[in-house]
Amino acid sequence: MKEGVLSPEEVLEHITSRFPKGVSSASIRKREQGKKKVPHYTIWIDLDRELLKPAIGALMEIQFPHLSVIAGADLGDAIRLLYIFSTQFGHEKSEYMVTFAVTLPKSDLAVPTISDLVPGAVFSEREKQEFFGIRVTGIPDGRRLFLPEDFPPGVYPWRKDETGVPEGMVKELWKSGRPTDRPSPPVEEKSPGPAGGGEGGMAAPGNGAPKEGGK
Amino acid sequence: MSGESKKAPYRIPIGPIHPALKEPVMFTFEMEGETVRDVDFAPGQAHRGIEWMGMRRNPVQIVHLTDRICGICGIVHSLAFSLAVEDIAGIEVPERADYIRAILHEFERIQSHLLWAGVAAHELGFDSLLHLTWRVREEAMDVIENLTGNRINYGIVQVGGVRRDIVPDQHAVIEKCLAKYEGLLGTLLDFFLDDRTIRMRCRDVGVLSRKDAVELCTVGPTARGSGVNVDLRQDYPYAAYGDLDVRAVLPDQHLGETHGDVYDRIVVRLLEVGQSCGIIRQCLSDMPAGPFTAEEKPARILAICKKASGEGIGRVEAPRGECLHYVRMEGKDSPASWKVKASTYSNLMSWIPMLRGSQLADVPIVVASIDPCLSCTDRVAIVRDNRQAILTKDDLHRLSVEKSRRLQR
Does residue A184 belong to any structural domain of this protein? Predict the structure, then answer.
């Protein structure tokens, strides 16, 4: 390892050593690609929601981290939120992703805002509020982000329970079948000679002989 | 008019449709005279629910859906998604596929940056430069078509590798294109960087400080233009980039200083075109022989994916910056969760510090300077006291062109 650059184990240790309790799992995943098999690392840490902000604080001691996005998943009785960070950017081949995952039971879907630590997080927090129906406490700007203003309240597109998108909101275009009243596509005249050769199949549709009167 | 109403700030909504970049976002500007005092924006005018659709499809189908997330970034989304799924399912991608992925990735960067350079020239009123850049961009499009079969929606990346090989006959086609770009790059740099008017319009306009760039989580050329040393190809190697020596292109390498303005973002993008040519050439000469996909039959790929469970992240350096896909599989056909984070998602918030304090005529070039993959103006309604005037996108564009002409005098 280069000087001043931490190994993935050191980064993990730096964060988890602060918290004797509340970290339910922690792992480092390595992936190698290319001929030289240069690895990159992703650090996964599952923790209690009370520890989320202290953990981000510990990460910020290494370098101001880059927050890619807050991802999430509906687990049935809980929502899992993943705060996907990366640290040590600018150090050649030594950037690691650090993912903090918190699980919020559906009876209490509140999580504190991290925008006081990372101002750019507001964007992603707004999105999680409208798509998962969670509540980000202390968010400086709680407006909608991507969904239209007339989107029905209480419907959260990424939820898999009764608050998800109901069937009535989904247009199933395939049920209407293929349109039959369309003009047939313009088809090139069949060339008399072998001109075009084997490429002739490119111009005419492959599903049968070209029809007359394409125009 | 009373003196009081002249002083009062007035609000200008811009949006939600902008014909220049075809992607909609709604802006509200609070103006004081010609100066933007504050700005707010509302994205989501083109939200199509792609992630919702993905959670009802299988990974082989989703790869083709990812091709269609963006009109010109056909590689980055399918590559990021495939990386995430391969991570979960433990699929080992052949080395040759890593190189082919990198070559296509760089061609995409070349065409995207040239397209952007044309848009920037147009916003400044240099339409001959727009036509020049878009004409030379066709060379890259032709090579992409030669390699993948399509100009856009390439359909080339699949889980486990790529769908087509690059055969020796195609090396000459690629080499011809690279030589042409390397010959042209000096001319393009002259046109953009040594022009007095472009310098006056772009220097110290739309400034984003390094601190703001880091705190607002910006990515790609927008962050690098502000002097932040980030480039996933350098920091977090994927595909063939671990074998190459890619260094982030920063404005001070070329100019000796960093302003974090529109000009610096132009410098970064143009230099990256040259960098991409070098990367492609190196990939071509180092490309190992062997298979180009771990599994050729889609049904077999699907069978592997169906058994997989876990979480994975795919992350690539798109032309506009980091593109990230998070996937969670639970041993079923379709992923339990899928989150797409496009590069512009991270860059939008940087508009606010950039636009604050800038002039109305500078709005088009500043907005375009982050190379947004969703954009702004169709109609501008100026609401001033009780009078209303509608400005079309053309009017706003005219304001920008007139400013260039004034400066040229």
Answer: no
Q: B220 and B329 share a domain?
A: yes
B215 → closest Cβ in A74, A119, A146: A119
Same domain, B329 and B360: no
In a domain, A178, yes or no: no
Q: In chain A, which residues have their Cβ closer than 8 Å to the Cβ of B349?
A: 119-120, 122-123
Last residue of a domain, one of B316, B341, B366: B341
Contact list in B for residue A44 (CB cut-off 8 A) is 311
Same domain for B269 and B300, yes or no, is: yes
- Rounded to whole angstroms, the Cα distance separating B249 from A46 reads 36
* Contact criterion met (CB < 8 Å) for A38 and B242: yes
ipTM of the complex: 0.86
Concatenated DSSP letters for chain A? --TT---HHHHHHHHHTT-SSSEEEEEEEEEEETTTTEEEEEEEEEE-GGGHHHHHHHHHTTS--EEEEEEEEE-SSEEEEEEEEEE-TTSTT--EEEEEEEEEETT--EEE--TTT-GGGHHHHHHHHHHH--EEET-S-----SS-TTSPTT--TT--STTS--GGG---GGGG---SSSPPPP-PPPPSSSTTGGGHHHHS-SSSPPPS---
B360 and B310 in one domain?
no
Domain CATH number, residue A20? 3.30.460.80
Contact check, Cβ <8 Å, A36/B311: no
Q: How far is A10 from chain B (nearest CA, A)?
A: 17
Place of tokens 């939008």: B348
Among the partner-chain residues B214, B236, B324, the one whose CB lies closest to the CB of A69 is: B324
B90 and B222 share a domain? yes
Considering the domain architecture, whether residues B298 and B322 belong to the same structural domain is answered as yes
Residues B78 and B194 in one domain: yes
- Identify all chain B residues contacting A126, using CB atoms and an 8 Å cutoff: none
Do B28 and B106 have their domain in common? no
How many domains does chain A contain in total?
1
CB contact under 8 A, A146 and B47: yes
**Count of structural domains within chain B:** 2
The domain in which residue A130 lies consists of 8-163
Whether residue A99 contacts residue A72, with contact meaning beta carbons closer than 8 Å, is answered with no
Minimum distance, in Å, between the CA of residue B243 and any CA atom of chain A = 6
Residue B13 lies in a domain: yes
B346 assigned to some structural domain: no
A57 in a structural domain: yes
Q: Does the distance separating the beta carbons of A71 and B219 come in below 8 Å?
A: no
Q: Which domain holds residue B261?
A: 50-341
Q: Pick from B95, B228, B313 the residue to mutate for testing the A interface (most A CBs within 10 Å).
A: B313
Chain A contacts of B219, Cβ < 8 Å? 66
Contact at CB, A90 and B326, closer than 8 angstroms = no
Cβ neighbours of B303 (radius 10 Å): 11
Could you read off the pLDDT tens digit of each residue along chain A, which spans 215 residues? 456 799 999 999 999 999 999 999 999 999 999 999 999 999 999 999 999 999 999 999 999 999 999 999 999 999 999 999 999 999 999 999 999 999 999 999 999 999 999 999 998 999 999 999 999 999 999 888 888 888 889 999 999 999 998 888 888 777 877 778 877 777 776 766 554 444 434 444 444 444 444 33
Does residue A105 belong to any structural domain of this protein? Answer: yes
* Spatial distance between the Cα atoms of A96 and A79, rounded to a whole number of angstroms: 25
